[in-house]
Amino acid sequence: MAIAGWLRDPQSILRRKLALSRLALLWEALWPRLVWPLSVLALFLTAAYAELFALFPAWAHIALLIGFGAALLGVTIWQFRSFRWPGADVTQRRLERDSNLAHRPLVALDDRLSGGSEDPTTTALWRAHQERMAQRLRDLRNALPSPGLLNRDPMALRFLPVLAVVIALVAAGGWRPDLLQAAFNPHFAPPPPVGFEIWVTPPAYTRLPPRLVDPQSAKVIRVPVNSKITAIVQGGSRVPVLKLGDSATEFTAVDKEKFTAAAEIKAGKRLSIERRGRELAGWPLTVVPDLAPTVELAKDPESTSRNLLRLDYLAGDDYGVVKLIAELRRAPIDGVPFDPDAPGMNERLHLDLPLPANSNKRLEETFYQDLTAHPWAGLPVYITLIATDGAEQQGRSTRVTHILPERNFRNPVAQAIILLRKALTRNPDDRAQVAEGMARLGSQPQLFSGDVVVYLALRTAANRLILDQSHAATTDVQKLMWETALRLEDGNLSLAERELRRAQDALQDAIDKNARDEEIEKLIEELKQALNNYMRELAEQMARDNEEMMEPGDNDQVITSEDLQRMIDKAREMAQSGNRDAARQMLSELRNMLENMRPMKSDRAQRQQRNQQGQQMMSEMDKLTREQHNLLGETQRQMQQGQRGQQGQRGQQGQQGQQGQRGQQGQQGQQGQQGQQGQQGQGQQPGDGDGMNGARQRQEALRRQLGDMMGKFNDMMGSIPDALGNAERFMRDAERGLGQGDLNSAERAQRQALDALQQGMQDMAQQMRGDGTEVGEGPNAQEQRQQQRDPLGREGNFGRAVDDRGVKIPDQPDRQRSREILEELRRRAGEGNRPKIELDYIERLLRRF
Fold first, then answer.
1. Are 566 and 585 a contacting pair, CB within 8 Å?
2. Which residues of 128-156 are buried (b: 16+ CB within 10 A; e: fewer)?
3. Stretch 787-803: mean pLDDT, rounded?
4. Do residues 731 and 698 make contact, with C-beta atoms less than 8 angstroms apart?
5. Higher per-residue pLDDT: 844 or 349
6. Is the Cα dihedral 365, 366, 370, 375 positive or negative?
7. What are phi and psi of 544, to 5 degrees?
8. What is the CA radius of gyration of the chain?
């Protein structure tokens, strides 16, 4: 039955046996080839569980991983280079060999009769043969695979990796996925911390200090435009980038891990440092713009009595004005237009205006300039002020028109030369007529006493105008005409004075530039020679014009030529010893002495007129001071009235507390009386009525009167005491306080103004006495002294600047202490909780003040 079953389904059994035979062939072919790749994997597991990778740095770890991978891939490729998939013939032969079947029965089952099946005998024999082969298939069996590793590895080295893996697993405590993960992840050392140092240096003209940016701060960084930023990055090997808005600046490597960069901040809203596209640090940024400076004339230009151009101006800039000039241009005469392209018509004259040394953010200054020697003197000009800040931005004032002051000459020939000079300035094309006029003057030497220098100058100017038509020639001729007019008016004194100033400027400039000792010695000798010439010409003019130096008074100091020479010698010694700052100061004092040294007319009438002007000015100042004192008293009385009204109100409230039990009607009556008195006390405050406006107007009038007197005194003496300027400012503050109804600030400002006025009168008197003006004497001195006496016949401070006859004038600390005591008394008088007896005493003290 088994044979019959086998014979009935031999194909299924055959297929199963063939499949097992093919698997055996595959195992025998694969296993010897897989031993070496698996050994490499075993070694990797051993290294992973033994934590051998942790012993190496990251780069060696990566190299080991690459080595294991390359070994695994190489061994696998090498072992499988000759691998072939077992075919059907090989599989059948393996099955027949495992079954010990001879004559290839499996092949016989698949054979076909080659001669055909028409012969029954042949067919019967063929079928009998196949049946016999099929019967032999009953003995088919599959033998176990035999890879033959013993022949290939007789020493059993293949077990070493397995043993190593077992030992590593036991040592690691079993299966450890974390160790496998660590084997595939090289341990890179964390990058060193990155440090930042950011310095923002504002432009020098802002006078702002450099600023260190806090790396941990998130606040907005406010920096002026054009600031310099210096960044230092410490740490890392990649070059970072400094970004300011849309601009980027690459750092420069200082060493392996230190980088630096510098940039100028123009715009941007964020400051950041990036590396490989990742922001390491960043800060919000605000760039503060630099506004252009502003400048304007405070009032129209003026010409002083000494023929000086006066400019009062206001200027300002957010960081300070570094340069301020007045630009002058020719203006049409009498509205008649001129050709701006004509020679000399489009010239500009720049005057450097002084700047204070401490702060130039807001300027309110007055500038004086002598332009009488300029060809434009006496002609209309356009004046524009130009202010420049540290960023070279400019601001311009509104253009104004002004006629430049000119000198009035007494000599007729000098007057004629100046008229011809002005005509040449107005119209350079009239050079022929001007030359003719100069020639006519030169043909009459009796007009200038036959002075050869004047004659040659007139002839030279006339010929130069005819022969040279250039603008430079016209300028030179005008300069020659001015010097000739000065010689006719002052002799050689003007030329000597100009040469003296040139020598002073040259020596001052050499000291400022730290010139060599030989050059300074040469310039000192030139200065001494120029000083001798000037003093000689000054003496000759004084003798010629019947002039003399005014006799020195008590405060005058006689300066001789020998004194000036000794000052120059002392300056030389200081410069040679290396103390050039002291030499510079000595030369500055010498210049001031020479500038202030002027000959005085011996004409008593002129001196008396000057004395009368000084006495009249002091009398006006004394009157202004008394009016300011009276206005201060009125303000103090108004303050006391308001305080008494408040005290009356507090008194009524106290009476209400004592009579609170007398009934509701009595209480209401007291409240009604209190309301009426409180209203009366409040109504007495001038801030609510017309009295305050009147006081403010009076204060404004006094301030304007002081301004006019300051201008007159400046024209007379050339400078104004600082105390008068302070008084004008305090008056302005008092005027503002009265306008706002603030009696306390108004009263304080009025007291300060009064003190400044008294100090200013003392400074004026001292300055006029030092200039030779007699302040206390004159044709009406006796009458003035009589007016200065009080009703009891005592002399007081009613006409003089200072009354020092037996009375000690309190100094500044004493006056300050008195003001502090008065303010403390007023403060205590306003405290209603103090005892009534103390309040009455304070009120009596205030009445005495």
1. no
2. eeeeebbebbeebebeebebeeeeeeeee
3. 39
4. no
5. 349
6. positive
7. -70, -40
8. 57
Statement: residue 405 has pLDDT above 60: yes
Q: What would the two tokens of residue 222 be?
A: 């406010």
pTM given for the model: 0.46
What single letter denotes the amino acid at residue 762? Q
**Token digits of residue 264:** 């100028």
Q: Within 13 Å and on the Cβ side, how many CA atoms surround 729?
A: 7
Which of 725, 792, 785, 713 is CA-nearest to residue 752? Answer: 725
- Strand-pair partners of 287: 223
DSSP letter at 447 equals G
Please give the pLDDT value at position 460: 92
Which residues in 79-92 are b (16+ Cβ under 10 Å) and which e? beeeeeebeeeebb
Distances (CA, A) of 697 to 108, 639, 732, 733: 145, 18, 11, 13
Tokens linked to 43 = 């070694």
pLDDT of 566 over the 90 cut:
no
C-alpha 644/C-alpha 832 separation (Å) is 11
pLDDT at 545: 55
Q: How many Å from the N-terminal Cα to the C-terminal Cα in the chain?
A: 155
pLDDT at site 5: 44
Q: For the residues 724-742, what does the mean pLDDT come to?
A: 88
Q: Per residue in 629-648, pLDDT tens?
A: 888 888 888 888 877 666 55
| Residues 586-610, mean pLDDT to the nearest whole number | 61
> What are 58-73's pLDDT values in tens digits?
888 888 889 888 888 8
Q: Return the half-sphere exposure (C-beta side, CA atoms, 13 A cut-off) of residue 700.
A: 10
Label residue 211 exposed, middle or buried (CB < 10 Å: 0-12, 13-18, 19+). Answer: middle
Structure tokens of 480?
């020659």
The two beta strands, 270-275 and 278-288, are antiparallel
The CA–CA distances, whole Å, from 182 to 40, 49, 164, 188 equal 18, 10, 19, 12
- Other CB atoms closer than 10 Å to residue 648's CB: what's the count? 15
| Beta-sheet pairing, 600-601 with 547-548 | antiparallel
User: What gap in Å lies between CA 782 and CA 785, rounded to an integer?
Assistant: 5
336 beta partners: 333
